[in-house]
Design goal:
The chain has about 140 residues and is mainly α. It has one domain. Helix content is about 75%, strand content about 0%.
Length: about 140
């Protein structure tokens, strides 16, 4: 009996990314329109943005204001609301968190790693079950 039918890594990760992107798109509207692509690239794939985005995600208020254009300066309250209410908590808050988010590859990297770990656990469980079956057969002889 086939108790596990694998879904391709791409399909599974893409489905989860699409869901996360939909949630982000529903909330990124409060930010200046020219920032949406950079925000989505950073959160989805861990691709760093410019100096302003890095300052925002690093929670460096003064640096963010220094680097903000006029529309981002007006939207600072919206940036705070977006980070607090929409962005994954491990992608913002300090320079260290930003570096780690970039290193892991954003949501996509996290989901791919989780998928690989799940496949490893399934393979280990199958191997354990086969060993148990062999042991049971050998014990009944």
């Amino acid at each position: 009996m086939n108790w596990y039918e694998p879904i391709s890594k791409y399909e599974r990760v893409q489905k989860q990314l699409d869901g996360a992107t939909e949630r982000l798109l529903n909330n990124v509207n409060s930010l200046p329109p020219h920032m949406a692509d950079g925000v989505l690239r950073y959160i989805r794939q861990g691709i760093p943005g410019g100096h302003f985005l890095t300052a925002v995600f690093s929670n460096k208020l003064v640096d963010a204001y220094e680097r903000a254009d006029e529309s981002n300066t007006r939207a600072m309250r919206n940036w705070a609301a977006f980070l607090y209410g929409c962005a994954p908590s491990n992608c913002w808050g300090s320079e260290q968190k930003v570096r780690e988010w970039i290193a892991v590859g954003g949501l996509k990297g996290i989901l791919e790693r989780e998928h690989e770990e799940a496949l490893t656990r399934i393979a280990d469980a199958k191997e354990d079950a086969m060993v148990a079956d062999l042991t049971a057969v050998e014990g009944s002889e």
